From TrEMBL:
GO BP field: monoatomic ion transport
Family: Belongs to the ferric reductase (FRE) family.
Transmembrane segments: 20-39, 60-89, 119-140, 170-189, 209-231, 252-272, 284-315, 544-568, 588-608
The species this protein was found in: Sesamum angustifolium
Name recorded for this polypeptide: ferric-chelate reductase (NADH)
């Protein structure tokens, strides 16, 4: 394209390319899902599959693996690559505008309350029902085809009763259907994925899909295992449980995989997860044993059906590991009287993220293994060199952090590592005339970043920004001090108030303002360490292109390794019979080469970008100097300042405080006369459900609901 083309032409070409990419992605996705629909049918097993294997069998990939790569692996990885290109082109547009939703799509994105599922959009509900239909279709067809082959004569020939033969068939089919859910299990938790944002999703908001899929996987696999145990017991073949065949299915490996899965599954239920989070956290790492023994159980040929999701997850997990190895520069902390801490980090100007993004934080002095997600409250545009998160005391980890920083002699340095940020590729707040933000307690955190981003849009970009009505409910009046964090730690706040910010704060457990001793906010400055670096994008500014390079190169390296291994080592022994070379050895070699390929490709790209990040880090450290500007003679500075019943005077003009009552959300929402009202809610489940019911009632067509995910 001509470099002198006007911006409108470039923008139009950008949109055309993205539209073409999305069309290809939709086609690939439709074909991929069609395969899952056809998989249990005789047409697939007797016509399509033999034809595919006849054209893909080779001395490099054996008899079955080439076909599996072609129809199950390549389409998904190609979608991921196209997603990287699509998101790279999208980054050329602003994060806070240029993303407009059509009226038809807006209707599909409206929330619905579904018992057992909570708040879901019509799109989510449609996909959920289609996925359930896919599972039912596969199970019904598998059983229909399998049972059709069972007769009294065939059962008698194997010394089985009819019900025993059918139980044997049903047990196998339950495992096959469980593998469908397993194939999609890792997509929602691949935080740096290009697949999720391609469809407007984030990893934080997609955790619920991972939960649903996890329960589905374990229900089918548990039923699969129990049916086989009952079958073996009834046919006096209980010794089958101890068999580990040289080739083919390994029963022992399947039992070990199921055992690891059951231990993991048991700790995921809310009653256990909420009371003993550490148990949930550590047992969740049993997924490694679960997957290894699963591959040893079914063999690498069949396990490659679920390879794409896990392959992308491994790339993401290794990149997060590389990012987490280096300490980050923690500048200061603001300790609030409501057992809340704001941590302010140094960041590179090249790191950009959207409002409502999250970041995972590790503090080795508290726990070397625990990582906790927190919502980012800063704006990467308004505060180009700083990043802040808010930590509320909710458990043992956050309590230890608060004790370290609130003691009379706080630590002068706090080591920290991060993973992220992760967030939506874009947001669409400017299309509304009014934003109504409803929060309960700690749910206010994502709204702070949105307000700051709107401030940037109005002050710097000179865009028309919507008015903001923030409705916040707190238990105690000391919690009101968190409203002070709406203001950045530096910079003029004037534009926040010019934009029409109104705050309605409700203190539910106090009938009137307290007369207790005035509370203070204390700022603690930390001593810099030369080895610490500002938070920077792990793959540089063109991170999506580099991610695409990692995905493609790592898979090509893996194919080369496997091709050489099969052609010059396994094939001379096995000759594509799959009856001589041990299945376990073949599977372990594949796992090893997948790991090597990911490590080689990701490490190469990481080191290539690390040099650029290091140069920027040196520049930032030179600008920062040896000590904070506010503290010329000490490494920490207690900036105690009095807080009245409300925060700073400028902010207090926008706040109305109500004591001893809860907000009347119906009145606030139904009374809005603006043509487009964006409604965002973040807080307790009851509050989210109430707002969702109001917006989905159909009584006010101008209300557009969005549920915000947050971490505190």
């Amino acid at each position: 394209m001509d470099p002198t083309s006007p911006p409108s032409s470039l923008h139009g070409a950008n949109n055309s390319i993205r539209a073409a990419i999305m069309a290809v992605v939709v086609g690939l996705l439709a074909g991929y899902l069609c395969l899952w629909v056809m998989m249990p049918t005789n047409t697939y097993r007797q016509t399509w599959l033999p034809h595919l294997r006849a054209h893909t069998t080779s001395t490099y990939f054996g008899t079955a693996q080439g076909a599996t790569y072609l129809v199950f692996t390549f389409p998904v990885l190609l979608i991921a690559l196209l997603g990287c290109l699509y998101l790279h082109l999208s980054n050329k547009s602003s994060h806070i505008h240029h993303t407009h939703t059509s009226n038809k799509l807006a209707i599909w994105k409206r929330p619905m309350m579904v018992k057992g599922l909570g708040i879901v959009s019509r799109i989510e509900l449609a996909f959920f029902l289609m996925f359930i239909a896919l599972l039912v279709w596969n199970l019904a067809n598998y059983l229909h085809v399998g049972f059709a082959k069972i007769t009294s004569k065939s059962a008698a020939e194997t010394g089985e009763k009819m019900w025993e033969a059918k139980l044997d068939t049903a047990a196998l089919r339950l495992g096959l259907v469980g593998n469908i859910a397993l194939s999609f299990l890792f997509f929602p938790v691949t935080r740096g994925s290009s697949v999720l944002p391609l469809f407007g999703l984030t990893s934080e908001a997609s955790v619920k899909y991972h939960i649903w899929l996890g329960h589905t996987v374990m229900m089918f696999f548990t039923a699969h295992g129990l049916c086989y145990i009952i079958f073996w017991a009834s046919t006096h073949q209980i010794s089958e449980m101890l068999k580990w065949e040289k080739t083919g299915i390994s029963n022992v490996a399947g039992e070990l995989s199921l055992l690891a899965g059951l231990m993991l599954w048991g700790a995921t239920f809310p009653q256990i997860r909420r009371k003993t989070f550490e148990l949930f956290f550590y047992t969740h790492h049993l997924y490694i044993l679960f997957l290894i023994f699963f591959v040893l159980h079914v063999g690498i040929g069949y396990a490659c059906i679920m390879l794409p999701g896990f392959f992308l997850f491994m790339i993401d997990r290794y990149l997060r590991f590389l990012q987490s190895r280096r300490g980050v520069r923690l500048l200061s902390a603001r300790v609030l009287p409501c057992q809340t801490v704001e941590l302010i980090f140094s960041k590179s100007k090249g790191l950009s993220y959207t409002p409502t993004s999250i970041m995972f934080l590790n503090v080795p002095s508290i726990s070397k293994l625990q990582w906790h997600p927190f919502t980012i409250t800063s704006s990467s545009n308004l505060e180009s060199d700083k990043l802040s998160v808010i930590v509320k005391v909710e458990g043992s980890w956050s309590n230890k952090l608060h004790q370290l920083l609130s003691s009379p002699s706080p630590v002068d340095r706090l080591e920290a590592s991060v993973e992220g940020p992760y967030g939506p590729p874009s947001t669409d707040f400017l299309r509304h005339d009014l934003l109504v933000m409803v929060s309960g307690g700690s749910g206010i955190t994502p709204f702070i970043s949105i307000i700051r981003e709107l401030t940037y849009a109005g002050e710097t970009l000179k865009l028309k920004t919507p008015k903001v009505l923030l409705i916040s409910a707190f238990k105690n009046s000391t919690d009101l001090t968190i409203l002070d964090l709406i203001l950045p730690i530096s910079g003029a706040p004037s534009e926040i108030f010019k934009s029409g910010l109104q705050i309605e704060a409700y203190v539910t457990r106090e009938e009137h303002p307290t007369t207790q001793e005035t509370k203070f906010i204390r700022t603690v400055w930390f001593k810099p360490n030369p080895s610490d670096a500002p938070i920077s994008p792990i793959l540089g500014q063109n991170n999506w292109l580099w991610l695409g390079a990692i995905i493609s190169s790592s898979f090509i390296i893996y194919l080369i390794f496997i091709g050489i291994l099969t052609r010059y080592y396994i094939y001379p022994i096995d000759h594509n019979t799959n009856t001589i070379y041990p299945s376990a050895s073949r599977a372990l070699l594949h796992i090893l080469f997948i790991c090597i390929s990911v490590v080689v490709a990701a490490t190469t790209v990481f080191l290539w970008n690390k040099s650029g990040n290091a140069r920027e880090s040196v520049q930032i450290q030179n600008l920062e100097g040896a000590t904070p500007q506010a503290s010329p003679n000490s490494w920490y500075y207690n900036a105690d300042r009095e807080l009245e019943s409300l925060p700073q005077q400028s902010l207090s003009q926008s706040i109305n405080v109500h004591y001893g009552e809860r907000p009347d959300l119906k009145r606030f929402l139904f009374e809005r006369k603006e043509s487009s009202v964006g409604v965002l809610v973040c807080g307790p489940k009851k509050m989210r459900h109430e707002v969702a019911n109001i917006c989905s009632s159909g009584l006010a067509a101008n209300l557009h609901f969005e549920s915000i995910s947050f971490s505190w």
